[in-house]
Amino acid sequence: TRKESSAASDVYKRQVQKPEHGQHFGAQVKAQGRPEPVRAVTPQSLAALTQAGLVYYPGPGIGQHAFHRAAATGAHSAWSLCGITHTTSSAGAMDAISELITAPVQPWDAVICTSNAVKDNVTRLLQAQVNMLKERLGVSKLVLPMLPVIPLGIHTQDFVFSDAQKNKARQTLKADTNTLVVLFMGRLSFHAKAHPLAMYQALQKAALAVKASGKKIKLVECGWHANEFIEKAYRDAALQACPDVEVITLDGRKPEDRETAWAGADVFCSLSDNIQETFGIVPIEAMASGLPVVVSDWDGYKDTVRHEVDGYRIATTMPEPGLATDLALRHALDIDTYDMYCGHTCSLVSVDIDQAAQAFVKLFESSTLRQTMGAAGRQRAQEVYDWKTIIGQYEALWAEQNRMRLAALQNTDAQAAKLAHPWPARMDPFYAFASYPTQTLKPTTVLSLTDNNLEAATARLQSYQAMAMVSFAKTVLPTAEEIAAVLKQAAEGPQPAQALVKHIDDNRKPFVFRTLVWFLKLGILKLQA
Description:
Blueprint: E1 2-4, E2 12-15, H1 19-31, E3 38-41, E4 54-56, H2 62-73, E5 80-84, H3 91-98, E6 110-112, H4 116-137, H5 163-173, E7 179-185, H6 197-210, E8 216-223, H7 228-241, E9 245-251, H8 255-264, E10 267-270, H9 282-288, E11 293-296, H10 301-304, E12 311-314, E13 316-317, H11 325-332, H12 338-346, E14 350-351, H13 353-365, H14 367-385, H15 387-409, H16 412-416, H17 429-432, E15 446-449, H18 454-465, H19 468-471, H20 480-490, E16 495-496, H21 497-500, H22 509-514, H23 516-521, E17 525-527
Helix pairs in contact: 5-8, 6-13, 9-14, 11-12
């Protein structure tokens, strides 16, 4: 589905595939206490999006929707499109991004990149596609959407916990005053999220370093394993790599477990090393919770976490470009699944274990440092990453897109440059298959009633309409009133096809004119030699 957005609109519009989807969405909006009425826009009423002026699509693949816009309205400036990146390493996401080069996207369209790292990735994808088309076709003109960097947001108030909640969480975790709780929050997937060995090894080193002071380290992994094999792999790895760290698993799908994890932790850790990550929301949630963070210097974490201010960013290393074309090919040829592609790639990415251990030791040894970094992170989350701030950035972008689109509407040359076939792969079948028939129906084609009798023709047509093999196509057939008007005109004798629809409303004339072939198909009308 797609959401329409208009800053000045007092109607919440949403595009849906089926009307009942719109009814469900309307009920959800009402349940949230929103007063705005909801209007559903279906594929049959796509041109209604012109009233909104902008469509927000929660993914990067706005190219397909640019084709929809052109096909529905015959114009590229009917509304703006705004997409957003999430994971960009999947085949579907990479194809959607590269296809922006050949889709009819416009300068007043945009794909929001959630981090500078992912913008660089998107730019590399687009440039590679451009280079290929230049070499193959000699293309010189390119029209690209905007690629603004706007981070994801959170409701920071959801991560503020009272002393009572914190005490209860510590009791649940059985963490006394000498116990330091480190939290990892997220899917427990070593091949598609964050390989845990670096974290385990770093925590083991840190646990041994602070053991003499009587401190104990407890690791809480709050998430879920996809299957028993992965669960066992985590358990076995922790036993081997960090035997002096107690590891607890909480179910991240349960709100009460998530609250226990956030409220009971002292330090947050996420050493992501996977290309499927683009932004990473959990460090922001940790900062909003007032926790100092230890994260990898990777993807969106580079933007969100200030090194030695909100916590520590730990160095990462991967091989130089050109040494993984085999991994891409194996994925492209379906030799490897997407999960295996991500897993093979992350196996060749490392996180500095010693740096991570040193960061943990600094935080474990100083409650003041933990409090200072936690407070700095909370302030940053509230000022920069709360949805109240992020939505303002969205609205500013949408206003700029609208300004550019409206300016383009004043360009008469651009309007005159409309393509006859804006979506080449979805052309009018009567054009695409024009060589199939013997002849085509033209305005000057002379037609007449087969029975030469209005009553007989009407009765026969009505009997045919009752047949399932006729009525199945009711969507493309004329109304009863239109049928009556055509037959009445035809009863006056042989005449050009255009004359048979002269009493039809202008906005329906093309629709009814083409159905004259349907009258021929049923033998109600005939070609006049």
